Amino acid sequence: MGELTHLTGLTREELGRYVEGLGEPAYRGRQVFAALHRRRLRSFEEMTDLPKSFRARLAESATASTLKVESRYVASDGTRRYLMKTSDGLPVETVFIPEERRDTICFSSQSGCPLQCDFCLTAKLGLLRTLAAGEMVEQIIVALNDAYGVGAKTPRGTNLVAMGAGEPFLAFEPLMKALRVMADPDGLFIVPNRVTVSTAGVVPKIRELARVPDRPHLAISLAAPTDELRDRLMPINKRWPLEELLAACKEFEQSLRPGERFTFEYVMLDGVNDSDAHARQLANLLNRHQLRAKVNLIPHNPAEGLPYRPSPEERVQVFKAILESKGVRAFVRRPRGRDIYAACGQLAARTSVPAAADRPVQIQT
Ligand code: SF4
User: What own/partner pairs with CB < 8 Å and gap ≥ 24 does 202-205 have?
Assistant: First the structure.
């Protein structure tokens, strides 16, 4: 398997050149691209419109899929979590969140994560490996096929969020490549405007994204309004402290074009970062940097092994009111899929879920 080229990670042009290298005309590349991304087929055998001999030759040097779905969990709110394995046996998790107007797929950029955010279960895995572009694209294909059937048209639009396991900006190159592949109108046709990438604060990449023409929306996970607290909750802060991070955020905000979204995320931890004083410090910090971006308040998703509880609803509301009284736009985000460990910060390749959740189901994708 290691020697095989994963075709799902190639752009249409690259795939054209690849099949030409096998002595085939370029249109065969376009056919394979459509089979992989528009028809969402995950094996050459299913591409029955291609000559058998060509499929056999492809199979000698390439593969259409590398991820193996180990299990699927369905939450009481309809959220689905997929636990998959890479060809080298590492866990990859993806979450499908059905919503009224459009579905959201939360995908992983790394297996595990090297950052040690103290409130996140994924951090416990450490970094296992950064995923390749094809492994990111394939997660979307698996989730769409499971939700709607192989290759079936999706009834609603699809939003993507790179908020699963991993720090997306430590997977910058493969991530941007995956976004290019998925934006192709002859394939999945999910354009960057439908994608949000969340970073813990990798400052050089925020600056780099500010110069990218076709780019996803950006979210910055803050979690604390002071360096002292943020050093503890998100140790990446020791490398890029708040002043430096927010200066880069300002630069990014100034580069925004109409229709682009830029937000801050603030996980609410009971008794840790949710006091009135924290709210005032946060508002002052954003105002001092003249940042207009809105703040999403996210009640923490508890999990065994994490020493935090979510802030009570009324605390969240008071915190929100203080931010708003100081001119900061704030919203509360509803947690999804908590009962199957599919919510933010809960992805840690768990194979057991509380009894109340549905049993894992084996699926065909
Ligand atoms: S919150 Fe995100 S960046 Fe932080 S450890 Fe978890 S997966 Fe990594």
Answer: 202/167, 202/169, 202/170, 202/236, 202/240, 203/240, 203/244, 203/245, 203/248, 205/169, 205/172
